[in-house]
Amino acid sequence: MFAGNFSQVVDNNNVQTHIFDPLSTNAEGTRTPFTGDLVPQSRISSFYGVMQSITHTPTSAGNPFQVPNLDVFYPNRNNTDTLTTKIDHRFSAADSLSGRFTRGRATNSLAGGRFGSPADGLTNGFGTGRGDSRVYTATISETHVFSPNFLNEMLVAVNRNPNGQGTLADFTDWSQKLGLPNPFGVQGWPTITAGAFPGNNWDADNHKDQNLTTYLIEDNLTKIVGRHSLIFGGSFRREYNNVRELQQAQGSHTFAEAWTAQYDPVGDQAVSFTGVGVASMALGLPTFLSNQFNRGYFYFQQSEAGLYFQDSWKVARRLTLELGLRWEKWTPYSEKYNRLVNMDLGALASKFEVITPGNTTMESLPGVPPTVLASWAKRGLTWRTANQAGLPSSLIPAENKDFGPRLGFAFRLTNKTSIRGGYGEYFWTMPLSQILQTSRTNPPLNLRYTNPLGTLDGTSTFAVRTAPQPNYYVGQAQVDVNGTIILSPNAQSGIPWDFTRWNDSHAHEWHFTIEREVMRNTSLRLSYIGDHGDNLEQRVGLNNQEAQYNYTARTGLAVPGNRDLTRVNPNWSFGNGVVEKVGYSNTHSAQVQIERRYSSGLAFQWFYTFTRSLATTDSGASTSGNGGINDTTGQAQVAENIQLLGEPNLSFDQRLRLTYYNSTNVPPHHIRFNGIYDLPFGKGKHFAKGASRALDAAIGGWQIATIGDWRSGTWLSVNAAEYLFGDPSLSSDQRLTLYLNGRPQRLYFRGDFDPTRATGVDAQKLQALVPVDRGARVVRPLGAAFDNRLSQTLSNGTVRLTSITDTVSPNARAFLLGPRAWNTDVSLFKNFSLTERLKLRITADFFNFFNHPNDVNPNNTTGLQDLSSQTNEPRVIQFSARIQW
């Protein structure tokens, strides 16, 4: 699977890669390259053999990456059932009661194809998926009429949602099969990563169980006074959410390049393009092993309350005004046993400390083994209560000023033309999913037991400089979880909430619409909609390592082996950033809608939307968080000045602005349409209106319906590890088709790859767009070796090649439009009137009626689209029958 000389892959970038034997050195003290295959057959580990048996083989012997078998069909089984019971009772003319109970269940399973490239038929390993969600809902609503102009509606509801997600591997002890450490005896697939190349990651979803419970009471009153329709009321909702997520208890392991890389003693780093993670895996030499202690269920609780008032005022026959105000209140999420912690960022520079809620002491928290606390205390971590530290008792402040006005008007210019407009402000709190994500791994309530084999002495070059010992290999390397353990001296991870910059997320929305009847039963609507969001969840860099280039330029020294020493506080690593409510967004949208109401056997709707949306935090206001400073998917982290090349003294607002760019989820152009048409054949129709009963049964009662959409591509960026030296975009007539690695490709933009390896294309035209000389390409890495390392002269006169990938890239982000996509579904109906009351309808549904492919996005490094893949399903035909009586 991984055999073959690795230089065949890296030759895409015109460099020669070597794999070094960690047990052999030459006269200069550097490692000796392997020859022949990637790893000598005699050194292949048994672990590697098991991985071979459960992973797809490549399409060519010279490519170590896993390439999916495009002919494999991964069955996705979905089952849904719902039962609803409803009872209505009218006590009197003034009182009525309605009750409803709904029970629903949805299950699904996916045998492979979700992640990576599992072997054919693998149903209990990585790349699988499963889910089981149940819903129980009971509601009672009561309506009381005080007078013809005054009524009250009350609703009481309870919702219970037990659900679980994970993989089909959750019930197999894969760690034992692979020989990897599993001290907690947890079943499931461990996360395995081999090096930095894409495709060498065998991951699976965490095993997650939830029991979500909501109680709701809502009361709404309506009173009509003259020209005013007054609506007012309020609601109260209480949540009890029990959540358990088994994150990597079965293991999360890395096989990085270090064991098979060559050492550069001058720069105290690995030599560029030496070492391959897959080779380390083949040798059975991990660089990092870990198993994580999980506390079991979190018991999250929150309350929400709201009050509102709305006045619909009929000012004149042609003019109506809407005036309203809504107040909303969310309590901060709390945990039943106060098992949450935060950090005092004001004391970050001098303290390795966490804060517990209120007056709750760390030692009083249930479910946390004393040895876990003792291990963290031995590492130097201390803790105080929020009341002692002067933090909000709930660790984040409560917001009480969420007042949102609602203003609107409707004015009828003529009998065929109306104008509408409005403005509103809306608030929402941080969702439970994000509270869980940010709180579940914070120490000392979480403890990842590790064996950092690649950095055992605290330096990043230990494995590059050291010959492996027998107990470093898979099968012998273990993770110690017994008693009080010694934690790594490296910085420890955490995700704090910045309580000094915390508010509920806030949106301002305004719109203006003109509606006109353009013909009988057909209307045209033109709209403009604007939106501004603020207080959005934003990940902000804090206490990061100083960029290597900046450190060397400032001190004249090579960066220390333990790079955590370049942090303000070497004990903390906030890799996913600090959670702050400082993000913002702006969206402007123009919309056109043409609608025909059903008349004469025809109805349709057609919509066009143009949208320009920019944000500092995309993917929804409260779901960003896993991106780094060079993220290009809308989740970029705000960088510190020490991460900007040259360390300019930018203000926070200026650094936040660097993450403000086009939304990567919203296409600028979008068209949607739907329609239904009664075919004009049969009795009473335009053709064969006098047809006999038998003929009418054959040609009458036919309907055709369609629904579809077309959208432009979404905004894309080039790989942040590649630098722009011009505009790489190409027009449609400049894009060439070619073959590379045995697959059909289209050059979507001028990327970075070796054009001499392409076939089936005019070489002269291709090389004019992507030159053979890598230094002449529009997209390429920096440095003489194209490894993003620049030479720096140290204070002692030696020259060090220094990486700049830990600085913010100056590249434009989200500036390329991806490929367009469209789809049309068609349904054909045949209606039969069997009797006056008995009706039969037979339906044929054609999904992706035209059976066309939608192209995948191009590779953000090479600029090539893989034409052997598509983002949509092939045509699917479905037949159904419905009887109505």
Low-confidence stretches: 1-15, 57-73, 620-624
- Categorize the overall geometry: globular
Mean pLDDT, as a whole number? 89
Q: What portion of residues belong to β-strands? A: 35-45%
Helix content bin: under 10%
Q: Distance between termini?
A: 61 Å
Q: Specify the biggest β-sheet.
A: 21 strands, antiparallel
Question: What is the overall number of helices?
Answer: 12
What is the strand tally?
A: 43
Structural class: mainly beta
Radius of gyration: 32 Å
What does this structure look like?
The protein is mainly beta and 885 residues long. Among the domains are: 1-73 and 111-128 and 178-206 and 247-285 and 457-474, no CATH class; 669-711 and 819-884; 717-816, no CATH class. 9% of the residues lie in helices and 40% in strands.
Notable characteristics:
mainly beta, three-stranded mixed β-sheet
Secondary structure layout plus pairing:
Blueprint: H1 7-10, E1 20-25, E2 31-33, H2 46-53, E3 76-90, E4 95-110, E5 129-147, E6 150-166, H3 174-178, E7 191-194, E8 201-202, E9 207-225, E10 228-246, E11 252-255, E12 263-264, E13 269-270, H4 277-283, E14 289-293, E15 298-314, E16 319-330, E17 334-335, E18 353-356, H5 370-379, E19 382-385, H6 386-389, E20 402-412, E21 417-428, H7 432-439, E22 447-451, H8 462-465, E23 492-493, E24 505-519, E25 522-540, H9 548-555, E26 572-573, E27 578-599, E28 602-615, H10 652-657, E29 661-662, E30 669-678, H11 693-699, E31 702-711, E32 715-716, E33 723-724, E34 737-740, E35 743-747, H12 763-769, E36 779-780, E37 789-793, E38 799-803, E39 816-817, E40 821-833, E41 839-847, E42 864-866, E43 876-884
Parallel strand pairs: 7-11, 18-19, 23-26
Antiparallel strand pairs: 1-2, 3-4, 4-5, 5-6, 6-9, 7-8, 9-10, 10-15, 12-13, 14-22, 15-16, 15-17, 16-20, 20-21, 21-24, 24-25, 25-27, 27-28, 28-29, 28-30, 30-31, 31-40, 32-39, 33-36, 34-35, 35-42, 37-38, 40-41, 41-43
